[in-house]
Design goal:
The chain contains three helices and five strands, in the order βαββαβαβ. It has 119 residues and is α/β, with parallel strands linked by helices. The chain has one domain. A five-stranded mixed β-sheet has the order 1-2-3-4-5. It starts with a strand and ends with a strand.
């Protein structure tokens, strides 16, 4: 099992409600075996909006370290971050922490590329 810790800003409790309302948070850090990964959490509705906006504007979408959770709360983010960190190899389905997949003009194809926690 990999050594890991999940770190949120010290004052996260003060604005957790905002992260949940926005459906997005990008200031969390996962430390696995001494390596630091900044995670980008989205809920399904916000991620869909982001993908549509980016495709319309740029024709493609990419978000490093993307983690999709049911709701952007401390408990959902922590559980989602711990899942790959607890595995022996600490990998997401598409080849390692830090890879979220690529979405091109044809639309999102996130199959097997995004670690998802929707209990």
């Amino acid at each position: 099992m990999s050594e890991f810790s999940f770190v949120l800003p010290a004052d996260f409790a003060d604005y957790e409600w905002q992260a949940e309302a926005k459906g997005w948070f990008s200031e969390a850090t996962l430390i696995v075996s001494g390596k630091r990964y900044r995670l980008n959490f989205y809920d399904p509705a916000r991620l869909s909006q982001e993908i549509e906006d980016e495709l319309e504007r740029d024709g493609w979408f990419f978000e490093p370290n993307l983690v999709l959770v049911k709701s952007v709360t401390r408990s959902h983010m922590q559980r989602a971050a711990e899942q790959p960190a607890k595995s022996v190899s600490a990998e997401f389905a598409c080849g390692g922490i830090g890879y979220a997949g690529w979405v091109g003009p044809a639309g999102p194809d996130l199959t097997n590329c995004v670690k998802t926690l929707l209990p």
